[in-house]
Give the backbone structure.
Amino acid sequence: MVQFSQTSWQNGSLADTLDIMRYAPMTLTVGVNAVLYYTLPKTIESGEFIRYTIVAGFRKVSWTGIIGAVNTSDSNREFEIAVRLGEGPFRGFTAKHKFNSENGITTCIDDMTFQGCKDFAEDTFSIVMASARMVYAIPARAMAREQIAFVEAKKKTQAFEALNQSATAG
């Protein structure tokens, strides 16, 4: 069994952090150590999928987790997600993502447990994860969000122009 845990701080409110985490990073800098990131679904509720990726050198491992439980505090400053394995190269996977926001700073606490890997030896995976780090890549996610918004706006404009042309033809 391999365990991974990291605590990070992000500038921004809880709502802003959760919103930007719904976009996969457009670019990702990979160095000597493996990087791990996840992408939240549009609606964070039980049964939805979270997409996870580990990049180590030229190797990329991806899997999905299924949200089993979501807990929100009464003050809307704390948010916790419990996840179990959906599909992927592991026999088992569980995760807990906890977000706590105060004074414009959001604390992100990520705890993950991996059981058995089908693609490579567990001791190799353990060594990789011992030096891995979670990346939130907020600027790269913001860039992805902007590009998606641009493409969607262009699609709507083209659809409107096509509708306008068909309405005036004939």
